[in-house]
Amino acid sequence: MRRQYLGIALLIASAFTGTLAFRLATPAVAFYTRDILKASMAYLSIISASFILARSFSALFSGLLLEKRKSLVYLGALAMVGNALAVNLYPFTSSWLHVMGIKLMNGFLNGLAWPIAQFVIAVSSPKEIRSRVTALYFIFGNFAGLLGNYTYALTQGFGLKGQMYFASFFFFLTALCMLISYWLLYEKIVPKKEKEGKEDKAPINPKKILMLSALISLLSAFTFGEITYIYVAETLNLDKGTAATLIGLIGFIATLLAYIPSRFADLGNERKVIITISVLAGISPLLAAVKNPITVSLGILMAIFAAQTFRPISRSILASARRASAAIGGINAVRNLSTTTGQLVFGFAYSLGEVVILGIVLKAALLIFAPASLLLFGIAIKINDKK
Question: What is the DSSP string of 212-233?
C-alpha cells in the first residue's frame, strides 16, 4: 500500500514539475516569437496548432503501444528527457518556422508522456476516490501553471536562453519522478483487461464523452497556448509579465474549484457534473468576447474550469473500460485535435477585429464559436437520457 501511494504521489509531483517547465517556456517563446521574430497572430496560432496536432497523434499512439507491451510505460519518462533537451533550441531560432519545428517535437514528446501518466494514475488509484486523485493530479499541474507564469515574469531579465535552462531542469526532474513512479506502480498497470464486467461499463456512453471532449476542447482552445497570452495582453492593454501572471492565477483558481465536482462524480453524480460544465464551456467564449477585464477574466475562468473538471472525470470514467490505455489515449487525441482546430480558427479570425452591439465592444474572433456552443448545449441535454 505504501508503495502504491508513493508512486501516486510521485506522479502528482511530476504533474507539478512538468507543468512548471511548460508554463515557464510557453509565454517566453510566445513573446519572443511575437516581439523578436515579428510573427503575426495567424503564425502564432499555427505554432500552437502544430504543437497540439503533434501531441494528438502521439497521444493515440502511446495508448496503443501500452497494449502491446506494458514495459513501454517507461517511454513517457524518456519523452520528458527529450523535452528537457529540445527547449534549449529555442534561443537559436531566427524564424517562426524554426519555432514551429521545435514545437512539433515538443508536442510529439508531450503526447507520449502525459497520456501515459494520466492512464497510470487513473488505473492505480482506488476506484472509490479515483476522480479526486485524478483531480489532484491536475490541480498540482495547474498550481505549477501559476508558478510557471509567475516565474516567467520574474526571470525576464535572464533572457530566453536563461529561461530555457530553468525549464530544462524541471523537465529532467519530471522524467525522474515518472521513472520512479512507474517502477513502483508497475504491478498496478493493466493496459487491457481480458473481460469486461458490469463494473467496467461507463456510466455515460463513451461516444458522448468523446463528442463532449471535442466540443469542450474546441470552445476552451482560446485559453491555451501562445495566443492566449497575446489576446489578454493586447485586449486588456497589459504588459507581458502581468498578462502571464493573470492567466496563471485564473488557471489556478479554476483548477482548485474543479476539485469540488470530482467529489460529486465519485459519489455517482457524473451526469449532473458533466451537464453543468458543458453549459459553462458553451458560455465561456461568448463572455470572454466582451472587451472588459471582468468579462474576459470570467470567460477564461469558466473555460478553464470546464476543461479541467472534464479531464479528470472523463479519465476516471474511461479507466474502468476494457481497453483503458487506448481509451485514454484516444480522448487525449480528440482533445488535442479539437484544441488545434479552435486555436487555428481563433488565430485566423483575430484580424476580424471588434464589433459593437448595443454599445458593448465584442471581439469577433470569439463570437464565431457561438454555433459550437449551441451544439454543446444540445448534446448536454441528451446526457439526461440514460439509455
Answer: HHHHHHHHTGGGSSHHHHHHHH
195 is a domain residue: no
Whole-number Å distance between alpha carbons of 51 and 56:
9
- C-alpha–C-alpha distance, residues 130 and 118, integer Å: 11
What is residue 387's predicted lDDT score, i.e. its pLDDT? 46
Would you give the distance in Å from CA 224 to the centre of its chain?
A: 7
pLDDT at 63: 72
Domain assignment present for 196: no
Does some domain include residue 197?
no
Record the cell numbers describing residue 155, joined without a space: 526571470
Amino acid type, 255 = T
Q: Are the C-beta atoms of 111 and 336 separated by less than 8 Å?
A: yes
Instruction: Please state at what angle helix 96-124 crosses helix 293-318, rounded to 10 degrees.
Output: 50
Range of the domain at 310: 2-189+202-382
| Sequence-separated (6 or more) residues with CB below 8 Å from residue 44 | 30, 33, 34, 96, 226, 227, 230, 347
Residue 356 host element (H or E)? strand 354-357
Distance CA 233, CA 349 (A): 17
Which portions of the chain are predicted below pLDDT 70? 191-203, 267-268, 319-325, 384-387
228: domain CATH number is 1.20.1250.20
The number of helices, as runs of H, and strands, as runs of E, in the chain is: 14, 2
Inter-residue contact 52 to 340 (CB < 8 Å)? yes
Q: What is the number of structural domains in the chain?
A: 1
pLDDT of residue 191: 59
Distances (CA, A) of 268 to 42, 168, 301, 313, 324: 43, 41, 26, 11, 20
Helices (H), 32-95: 41-68, 75-86
Phi, then psi, of 202 in degrees rounded to 5: -70, 140
